[in-house]
TrEMBL record:
Signal sequence annotation: 1-24
Classification lineage: Bacteria, Pseudomonadati, Pseudomonadota, Betaproteobacteria, Burkholderiales
Pfam families: DUF1425 (PF07233)
Keyword set, alphabetical order: Signal
Protein name: YcfL family protein
UniProt keyword RNA-binding present: no
Amino acid sequence: MQFFLRNIVLAASCALVAAPPAVGQTIASKIETMGEPASLQFTGLRMREQNGLLRIQAELSNLDTRQQSAYYRVQWLDESGFQVWDDEAWKPVLLHGAQKLTLQIVAPTTKARDFKIQFSATDNRPLSQPSASGNSP
C-alpha cells in the first residue's frame, strides 16, 4: 500500500513539474537594452489602459552619484506581438546623481496592447568583446 501511495505522489509531483509554469511579465521582459548600463536601472514598471490607450509608468534609477544620460523609445505591439506603429524617435533622459525618474508614456494608437522599451545608456559596462556598433542610437 505504501508503494502504491508513494507512486501516486511521485506521479502527481512529476505532472506538476512537467506542466508549463505561468509566465509572468517582468521588467526585464519589457526592456531591451542596447549594451549593459553601468549605473542606470529600471526599478519599476506599471501599465494600465485608459480611454482605449495603454499608459506606462517606468521608474528609472541612477545608482551612481554622478549625472547619467540615456535614450529610450517604445515599440508598440498588438496582442500577437506585431508592431502597430512606426519606430519612434529616440528620447533623451538625464538623471542627476542618485535620482529616480518616472517616465510617463502613452501609446499613440488604440491598437497597441503591449510594448517593449528600447533603452541605451551613454555609460555602459565594458563588454568582453568590442562591438562594432556604438552605445548611443
